[in-house]
Structures are given as structure tokens and as C-alpha cells.
Amino acid sequence: MKKILYKFLAFTFLTSSFCSKIKADENKNKEIFGIIENFTEIMGKAWMKDKFLKTIRMPQTILLDANSRVYGSCSQRDKNLKTIGGSSYCSSTNTIFLVKEDVDLFYELNDSSGLLYLLAHEWSHSLQHAWLSKIPHPAKELQADCLAGRFVTMFEENIDRKKILSLAKISLHMGSKIHGTGNQRAYALLTGLGVIDGTCSIPKMKDLAKKPGNANKVISLMNLRSASNDININKSPHKKSFGELIEKFEY
Ligand SMILES: [Zn+2]
Predict the structure, then answer these.
(1) What is this structure's pTM?
(2) Is 154:242 a contact under the CB 8 Å cutoff?
(3) Which of 59, 214, 223, 235 is the least buried, fewest Cβ under 10 Å from its Cβ?
(4) What's the CA-to-centroid distance between 110 and ligand 1, angstroms?
(5) Domain residue spans in the chain?
(6) Distance from the alpha carbon of residue 197 to the mean position of ligand 1, in angstroms
């Protein structure tokens, strides 16, 4: 009898912990979908209010799993690459592919601001495409990081410095030949976030791309040891209104 009771208690414990895990996942997904929907809605409204952009179709966003197969979708992609792999913007179909694994990871790393960074980076590529920007790599990616920083502060008006720094730390680890070094990416993002003085303009981003050594000063900021002349850790991030978001679409 005792044995049956133990088995029953163990079963009850396991099912209740399993159910609470499902509940937590459900809540997380609800929050994630809410952030994506809110971001897309507001960016879409801003797009349609912009005199130039409203003449162009705004990007569609597709959320899928990393192993989802997308055939013949994007002319720029490696022909041997059948699965979507990672989140990206496809200019030939004006599509933002958001990979659920990336979405979950960025949300886990830095809550809503992490996810907004990912969303805003890809949206920035759609803006570059709309402007028929000829900005070369890695300046193009650095500009997308910088603009993403701007958009994050518009959606997260009360983002604190701790969150800003941990967001920049994420980009520190995402360097590549196309995207620029981790330091350059963090520098661009912090510029967009308003912690480093500067704009996301093409000349500024080209300059940052050309001189990767200049971005190394972000390390001192990351370590919180000291701040150089143009990096001010105590400076508040930009606080921009929705109206300014529309006006500042052009860089
Ligand atoms: Zn990119």
C-alpha cells in the first residue's frame, strides 16, 4: 500500500512540475509574440506615415524554425543552403525571416530589449533596401546595428544602463567578416543607443568600418573601468517619440 502511495505521490509531483514548465513556456511565447506584434505594428504605422516609404511595400515578417526549408526564396543566399539557418532579411522578396531559436535566445539573453535588437536590426535592412542604399559591408551591418539601437530606445524608453551594457555585450560576441568585429558592432549599437556620441549616417558607419581599431575603446566601457572622452557611461540613452521615429527614418 505504501509503495502505491509513493508511486502516486511521485507521479503527481512529476505531472505538476511538467505542467508548470508548459505554463511557463506558454507565457514566454505569449510575451514574445506580443513584442513582435507590437513592434511590427508600430514600425508599419511609421512606415506608412513616411512620405517616401509609403510608396513602397513594407516588409513582411515570417517567424519559422531554424530547420524550416525555404526553397528559392532569396537570390542572395547560398544555393546549397536549403534551410533558413538564421534570422535574416531577404531583399528580393522584402521578407524578414525570424528564426524562433534566435528569437528565444535574444529574449533569454536580454528580455524584451534583446528581442527588439534582433527585430530592429532586420527591419533596418529593409529600410536600407527601400533607400536603395549602396553602403558596402561591413558598414551596412554596422548601420543596421546602429539603427537597431535607435529603435530599441524608442520602444524601451526606460531601458537602464545595465540592460544597455548587457545588450552591447551580446553584440561583442557576434563579430564576422560581413558584420564587422564584435567591438565594431558594440560601438555601432552603443552609438544608436545614444551612449556614444554620433549618428548612424553612411559616412560615420563607413568610417567605423574602415578603422576597426577605433572601436576597441568599447572594451573599457564593457569592463566599467573607465570611460573615454566620447563614451559616457553615465549618459542617459536617447528618448525619442514616435513622431521622431518617423522623422529620423532617413539617415
Ligand atoms: Zn544584418
Answers:
(1) 0.83
(2) yes
(3) 223
(4) 19
(5) 33-55+111-247
(6) 22
Ligand 1 centroid from CA 116, angstroms: 14
Decide: 235 and 161 in contact? Cβ < 8 Å: no
The answer to whether 88 and 53 are in contact (CB under 8 A) is no
Q: How far is the CA of 12 from the centre of ligand 1 (A)?
A: 47
CA of 145 to the centre of ligand 1 (A): 8
> How many CB atoms neighbour CB 44 within 10 A?
14
Residue range 177-232, pLDDT digits in tens: 889 999 999 999 999 998 898 889 999 999 999 988 888 888 877 675 444 444 55
Residue type present at position 85: G
The C-alpha atoms of residue 103 and residue 36 are separated, in whole angstroms, by 9
Tell me the three cell numbers of residue 182.
564584435
Cβ neighbours for 63, distance < 8 A, ≥ 6 positions apart: 36, 98, 100, 103
Query: What sections of 193-241 are H helices per DSSP?
Result: 202-210, 218-222
Centre of ligand 1 from the C-alpha of residue 129, in Å: 12
Rg (CA), the chain: 21
Cα of 15 to ligand 1 centre, how many Å? 42
Rounded CA-CA distance 90/191 in Å is: 26
